[in-house]
Amino acid sequence: MQLRYAFRLYPTPGQQIALAQSFGCARVVFNDAVRARQDAYEAGEKAPRAAELSKRLVTEAKKTPERSWLGTVSAVVLQQSLRDAEQAFKNFFDSISGKRAGCRMGVPRFKTRRDRRQSIRFTANARWSVTRGGKLRLPKIGDVPVRWSRELPSTPSSVTVIKDAAGRYFASFVIDTNPESIGTDAPDVGIDLGLGHFAVLSDGTKIKAPKFLRGAERKLKRAQQALSRKEKGSKNRDKARFKVARAHARVADARREFHHQLSTQLIRENQAIAVEDLAVQGLARTRLAKSVHDAGWSAFVAMLEYKAPLYGRTVVRIGRFEPTSQVCSHCGVKDGPKPLHVRVWQCQACGVWLDRDINAAANVVKAAGLAVTACGALVRPPGPSGARSGEAGTRQGDLTARSPAPPGAVGITGVHAGEEVNSTRSWA
């Protein structure tokens, strides 16, 4: 299984300039590739191949006065940018034809320097490495200081350098990992996600919703008001924009940390987890939109699904139309829907008093098929996992190798390849 490990980078002012040049060159090559595909489509011609684009947009472009500055950055960065453009078009066409699951992908757009996230990727051909001093050596950039948290489980073949909207830098590695063997005598549990309580478990445990965005609204309001008063195009406006981005980043980091801790605890303590497949996109269009986004249910369930194979666990999603709040978990009698203000009710058939959320969580377990079937087997389908398809991972045969991370290094968090990069709590 492949996971992504993100480490905070602290480049020097000179290295930040070199990284900005690499980001800009990669962006220009990506835009040139998108424009070449669009021109070929408008002219009714066949889309140019990757080798042709590489020769025209990189090799020959360096010899022209207009693109001579492409030679100041690593050629691997430019080649990977072309691969990203090719993968973007492939995802678009696969989405139209139905080969790609999920939401429909849009046509690849042009990148700008004001994009929220900028990234470049170095493969093994770039000869990047980790020095004995614990710094990340990147071609034509130098030895960048890294805040490590732990050793990598295997040797990666590529590293992606990312700059987010708050001006922070990260090094992202895709690593092959082996599942961790833990006990198999853990119980099964159902989870009912909500807004009053973030999660209610079928065993009666209620986990309070932290509401990180609600708690930071006053600070965010002041930062955004200060931004609105700055003149467009001024340096003070850029400073105010970074303050707003950092305030939002702190909220996102706190929410992600809460999701990671809770999901890891649930995966370790339970053999199988059942959760309801909520219509988050639909709920996000209601008056509860801010609270729904603040809860982050989709990110939490995604963490459960990718962590389950690591510990030999199972996560099952049930349909969103299951009447979990209308059925008594003791006798199974359905007595119809109830208003949201009804939190405790009595079953008319068996007379048992039921808590709305705990009863729903217990019904989630039953609806997921975690009870014993007629043949005596448990229904526990394996959950999907994996890293992003277009990103290079661990070298073949290096699964048991150890990374050259420095001894005594402290501090990072591994995240799934589909997620945003997890950040540390320190600020430069």
Question: What's the topology here?
Answer:
Elements lengths: L1 E8 L3 H30 L7 H10 L15 H23 L20 E5 L6 E2 L5 E3 L3 E3 L1 E2 L11 E5 L5 E8 L11 E6 L3 E5 L4 E3 L3 H4 L1 H12 L6 H35 L2 E5 L3 H4 L5 H7 L1 H11 L6 E5 L25 E3 L6 E3 H12 L45 E3 L13
Parallel strand pairs: 9-12, 12-13
Antiparallel strand pairs: 1-6, 1-8, 1-16, 2-7, 3-4, 4-5, 7-8, 9-10, 10-11, 14-15
Order of helices and strands: EHHHEEEEEEEEEEHHHEHHHEEEHE
Radius of gyration: 25 Å
Helix content: 25-40%
Major sheet summary line: 6 strands, antiparallel
How would you describe this protein?
- The protein contains 10 helices and 16 strands.
- The protein has 428 residues and is an alpha+beta fold.
- The longest helix has 35 residues.
- The C terminus is likely disordered.
